[in-house]
Amino acid sequence: MRSFLLNLLLFIVFVVITYFIGILMVGDILMRRTNANIMYEPESGFNAIRFSEANEIEELDVLFIGSSHSYRSFDPRILNQYKLRTFNLGTSSQTHVQTNYILNEYLNELNPKLIVYEVYPNTFMSDGVESTLNLLSSHDMDFSLAKMSIATGDLTVYNSFINIISYKITGRKVKENYPTEEKYINGGYVETVGITNFSKVKDKYWKPRQEQLNAFEENLELIKARNIPYILVEAPYTYNYLNRDEIDKYLNDKGEFYNYNKLIKLDENIYFKDYHHLNHAGAAILTTTIAPVLVKKMTQTNY
Amino acid sequence: MLFNSLDFAIFLPIVFILYWFVFNNNLKWQNALIAVSSYIFYGWWDWRFLSLILFSTIIDYLIGIALSKEYSLSKKKILLWVSISINLGFLGFFKYYNFFLDNFKSAFSFFGNEINSNSLDIILPVGISFYTFQTLSYTIDIYRGKLKPTTNFISFAAFVSFFPQLVAGPIERATNLLPQFYRKRKFEYSQAVDGLRQILWGLFKKIVIADNCAEYANMIFNHSDDYSGSTLFIGAIFFAFQIYGDFSGYSDIAIGTSRLFGFNLMRNFAFPYFSRDIAEFWRRWHISLSTWFRDYLYIPLGGSRGGTWMKVRNTFIIFIVSGFWHGANWTFLIWGFLNALYFLPVLLAKRNRMNLEVVAYNSSLPSLKEFFNIVLTFALTTFAWIFFRAENVGHAFNILKEIFSNSFLKIPTVLPFMIILLTIFFIIVEWLGRRDEYAIEKLGFKTSRYARWGFYMFIATLIFLFDGKEQAFIYFQF
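YS: structure for the whole thing
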C-alpha cells in the first residue's frame, strides 16, 4: 500500500508539473493552432478598454451592469443629452457571480447615484465560465479573480488561468480581434451598425442555477448596503420564456423591474443584431425610452 | 455523481482511505461502507431514487431466501414471477408508461376514438435498467439452482448498489460478483495500479473522445436540416465514436474503480469497432447485456436448438427487446431490428462464430480482406446508430435521405481537425492494445518505466487540455 500511495503521489506531482510547464510553454500555440481548452482572444466586448476607462472616471450618475445586453443596449451619448453621466460595466455573458466581482472592484471608486442592473434571464442559467474567461483575458489579475476562477471548477478556466500567468511573466498583451461593424463608444457602450440575418430560436424554459440566484441576491444586498438606488432591466430579445410569469414574479420581488420586451415593441428585422442583441438603431430607441425613467428615478432619490 | 466530476474526485479517495485504512480488517464493515457509499453516490442525483433501489433490494433479498426454502416447483415459480413482476413493473412504469400511453392514444385516435388520459411527468431513475437486470439475475439464478441465496443483507445491498457499476454497468451476475463480497479482500499493488491505469484510459475515452465528438454530433444531429449529406455522414461517425467512448469509457472507469477495492467485474467491451462481422461486433459490444439476454432470454426461448425458423425468431426477439431496453422510442426498436437484419445472413450461413480470435493477432496490420470487413461492419453499425441517435423515426429518415442524395458528394462543412487527430490517436492506441483487456493495459510494458509514465502523463495532460464540454453519460438515461 505504501509504495502504491507513494507512486500515485509521485505520478500526480509529475502530471501537475507536466501540465503546468506544458501550458506555460506551449499554451499559446495550443490555443491558436488547436482547439485546446485554453483562453481565447475575445472577439467582442471591448472589455479591456472598458476597464481602463472605468479607472479614469471621476463622477458618475448612472452605472449599468450586466451582460452584453447591457453594453449593447444603452447609448451614453443619448443619455448625456438628458444630462446623465453614465458608464457601462457590462461584460460578455456576465453572470451574477461575475457581477459580484465587478461590483466589489468598482463600486466604491465609481460611487454611482443609480445602478441599472440588466437581468437577462439566461445569465441565471449560465455556469459563468465564458464570462470568467472574458475577465481573465481582459482584467488585471488579483486574488478575487483567481478565487472566482478556481471556484468555477472548470478545466478551461484553469488552463486559461495558467496561460495568463505566462502572459504576465512575459509581459504580453491579449490581442483583441473585434468585428469591423462594432465600435467602442466612450462610456462603455458598443455600437453595432447594420442588421445580421439570424435564425430565430425556440422559446426557452427558465431554470435558474442556485449559485446564480444566491449571487444575484448578494449583489442586491451589496448595492443596498451602500444606499444606492437601483432598477432591474431586461433589454429586448426575439424569443420568449415558457415560464415568463415565474421570472416576472421573481424579479418584481427583488426590486423595481422594467421588462422592455413588454414595454416596447421592436421590429426583429430592423432593430436587432442577432436573436438576442439590439443593433445601434434598437439601442437608440431603448435608450430614449429608458432615459426619462432614469431622470425621474434620480430626481426621486434627491440627487 | 458523475465519474468525470470533481465530486467523484473527492468521493473516491475518501471511500478508498476509509475502506483500506479504517475498515481494513473487518469484512462486514467494508461491505457496509460500500453499501453506504453506494447509496450516497446514487442519492447524489436525487435522494428520492434511493427508496426504489432499497425496496427492490429488500424484495429480492426476501424472495431469494424464500426460494431456497421452498421445495414446491409451482410455489417457486410464483415467487420468481413476483420478483420479475415487481422489478419489471418498476422498470415498465418509470421507463415505458408514457410510451405505451402515447402510442395507445395515437392508435385509438387513428380509428376515430379519443382517449382522455394525460402523460405523467415521470423522472426516470438513473440506471434503473442496469440494477433491475442485475437483481433479476440473482433471483433467476437461485430459482435455477445455480446460486445459493445470501442471508447477509448488507452484502446483498452492497452487491445491488455497488457504486462503480450501479448506474451503467457492467451488468454483473450474482454468481460472479456476490461471492466476492463474502471473501476477504486484500490490497494488491498490481491490481490497484491496473485499476488506476484503466480509469485513466476510461477518462480519456469519455472526456476527450466522447465529449468532444458529442459536441459535433449534437450540433449536426440537432440542426440536421442545415447540413449536407456528407456532413451528416460525418455527424454519424462522430456519434459512433461518442457512444463508444462514452459507454466503454464508463465501463473502464467502473472496472478500474472496482479493482481499487479488490473486486473484479466482467469485461464489457472488447474493441468492437475492429469486428469483422456483425456477430463478432455483438460479442464485443456491451458484453454484459448481450450475455444477459443470451442466458436469460435467448436460451429459455429455445436458443439455436430448434430449426432455422426458431433461430431467426429468437434472434429478432433478442435484438428488438435489446432495442427496447435502451429506451421507450421507436428509434431504438428500429435500431434493434436493423441489427437483427444484419445478423441474419451470418446466422443463416452459419458464419456467426467465424471470427472468434482477435483480429490480426499475430501481425501488426490487418489483411486487406480483414480491413474491408472491419470498415463494412463499422459502416453498417454507424448506419444503425443514426436511428439510435435521431429524435424520432422521421428525423432518422430525413438524415438518411440527405446522406443518400447528391449532397453526399459535397465537401463536409464540419471537419474539426484536432478532434479528428485525437480520434485517430485513439484508434491507433486501441489497435495496438487490442489483444489485451483494455487498450493501455500492457502498452509500453517492454519499454522503460519512464517511457510508460511519460505516456500516462501525456494522456492525463490531454484530458486536462482537450476536455469536451461535460456531458452526462449517454447510458444513464437507459
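YS: worth flagging: Residues 47-127+179-300 of chain A form a domain with the Rossmann fold fold (CATH 3.40.50.1110).
IM: good catch. Also The mean pLDDT of chain A is 87.
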